[in-house]
Amino acid sequence: MARSNNLPAKKWKAGERTVTRLHFKWDAGTDGGSKYIDIAKALSQVNRRAYRQGLYYYASKVTFSNSGAAYCSINTLMDNWVTKVAWKRAYQQFSKMNRKAMADLPGNITPKYHDFKIAMTNSAHATLDNTLDACYGNVTSSTTYTSDDWVQSKFVTEDPVDADPRNTDTFFVHMLGPHTGSSGAWTSIGLIRSLNDIWAFDPEEGNPSLDGDADTDPLSNLFDAGDNQDEVRLNLDTDNDEAPYNNNMMPGSASTDEQTCAAIMRTGTGAGAYVSAPGFCIPMGLLEVAVTDFGAGEAIGAVELTIDLVPGSYHGVHAERVV
User: Fold this and answer.
1) What is the pTM of this model?
2) What does the alpha-carbon distance between residue 128 and residue 147 come to, in Å, rounded to a whole number?
C-alpha cells in the first residue's frame, strides 16, 4: 500500500501474536460427566507452536454456558508444595531414564517436541485428547482442532516383572489418586500417591511431654496456690502436639476427588444461560470440567466453556516454570 498522510504515526506492535481465548463445546447428554483439558495442548493447536505442559498457567476468566439445567465445576490440581514436589520427582526420574537409554548412542535421538506429559487422574488417559472448538461463532459446527502427535509420557522400569529381566513393565503416570494395575503390570502410577509412600513422616505424638511427677514437684508448685497451674500445664502438654493436617496422608494420594474447586459451581436456568468466574492458577495446565444435573431430571445437552488466559512472555501467555 502506498504511503499517505492518512495513516497512524506508528505501526501496530502488540508483542507476539497469540490466541489466548480457548473455546470448548460438547454434548453433556443427560447425566453429564467429566472432561479433561490440557491447556498446553490447546494452546499448541490454535497457535501452531509447541507449549510445554508442566507449567503453571493462569486463567483471567472462564465462562460456562449450557442449553439445559446444568451445574459445572472446574477443578485444578492443588496449588501446594505437594503437587510441585510430586511432579518434579517424576520429571527427574523420567529424564534420568531417557539419559541412561541414550548414554551409549553416538547421536541424540530426542524428539523435536520432547516433553514430559502426564494425566490429571487415573481415568483421564482416554479423555486427555480434548476437543478444542475451531469455529467459535458457529455453535452447530463439529469442526475441532487436532494434533499430529501428542503422546503421554511412558515409563519403562528396570525392575524385572519376573525371573526373566527382559520382561519389563511399561506404565503411564497421573497426578491424583491411587495406582492402577498391579505389581509387574502397572497401568498408571499416581505421582502424589508415590510421593506419599516414600515420604519419611516424622512421629509427632507426645513431643514434648511432661513426666508424671511434674504436678507434684515442690519447685513447680511453689506458686500454685489454687492448683490451676496443673490444668494449664496439662493443656500445654496434651494439646496441639500433632500437625494440623493428616501427617501420614498427602491430599490427592488416596482419591481422585481430592481436588480444588477453582472456578464455577452454578446452575443454568435454560437455553443460553451462562456464568463467568474470575481467574485462577492452573498447575501443570490440567483441568477437570465436571458437569451434572444434580438429579434435576432434565437433559443437559450442549455445553460450552471459554477460558481466557493471562497474556505474558511465554509464547504470548503468562506461565511459570517448576524446574
Assistant:
1) 0.86
2) 12
